[in-house]
């Protein structure tokens, strides 16, 4: 017997990196299908606008300003989801940053910052989601959005490629 997820319209979905790109489009599409959303990113203005957009169309959304490179911020996202909606069913690790530049040109602090987001953000998000699913003793979905460059390195994005290998 396989585990089944709730229908999308009955789910609470956490999306990191929800202020732009794939996260923004995913949030809009999930809201259109009736999911309740917890939107997370560093850009409060973009998150606020997105949450208001969703609510103005009859949807349910809250947001959390968070840096996924900090474990305490990621745990706060989970706490807000549970406080606001009582639960969450799907966690989407989507937040990511890239750096363009040859390996010797990019500073070590910039590389570390990118790894904090792209690698550790996925680790922290995965741990928060799995912990919650285990505590509630029911199935949930964990989605880690990856990058083509995790399989194919590009000369000016070598550090980014290495930071996305976890997503395979």
**Count of domains:** 1
What class, by secondary structure content?
alpha/beta
Radius of gyration: 16 Å
Globular, elongated, flat, extended or rod-shaped: what is the shape? globular
Task: Tell me what the structure shows.
It is built from 5 helices and 5 strands. The chain is of the alpha/beta class and 168 residues long. It has one domain: 3-Layer(aba) Sandwich (Rossmann fold), CATH 3.40.50. The protein has a 5-stranded parallel β-sheet with strand order 3-2-1-4-5, sandwiched between helices. Helix 4 (108-136) links the parallel strand 4 (90-93) and strand 5. Helix 3 (71-85) runs parallel beside helix 4. The longest helix is centred in the last third of the chain and has 29 residues, at 108-136. The mean pLDDT is 89.
Summarize the SSE layout with pairings:
Blueprint: E1 12-16, H1 21-32, E2 36-41, H2 44-56, E3 60-65, H3 71-85, E4 90-93, H4 108-136, E5 141-144, H5 158-163
Parallel strand pairs: 1-2, 1-4, 2-3, 4-5
Helix pairs in contact: 3-4
């Amino acid at each position: 017997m396989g585990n089944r997820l709730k229908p999308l319209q009955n789910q609470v979905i956490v999306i990191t990196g929800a202020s732009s790109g794939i996260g923004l489009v995913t949030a809009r599409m999930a809201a259109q299908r009736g999911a309740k959303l917890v939107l997370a990113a560093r850009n409060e203005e973009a998150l606020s606008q997105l949450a208001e957009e969703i609510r103005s169309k009859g949807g349910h959304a809250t947001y959390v300003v968070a840096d996924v490179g900090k474990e305490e911020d990621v745990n706060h996202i989970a706490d807000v989801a549970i406080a606001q909606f009582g639960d969450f069913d799907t966690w989407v690790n989507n937040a990511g940053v890239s750096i363009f530049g040859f390996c010797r040109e990019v500073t070590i602090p910039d590389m570390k910052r990118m790894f904090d987001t792209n690698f550790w953000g996925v680790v922290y998000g995965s741990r928060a989601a799995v912990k919650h699913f285990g505590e509630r003793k029911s199935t949930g979905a964990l989605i880690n959005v990856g990058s083509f460059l995790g399989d194919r390195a590009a000369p000016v994005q070598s550090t980014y490629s290495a930071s996305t290998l976890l997503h395979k």
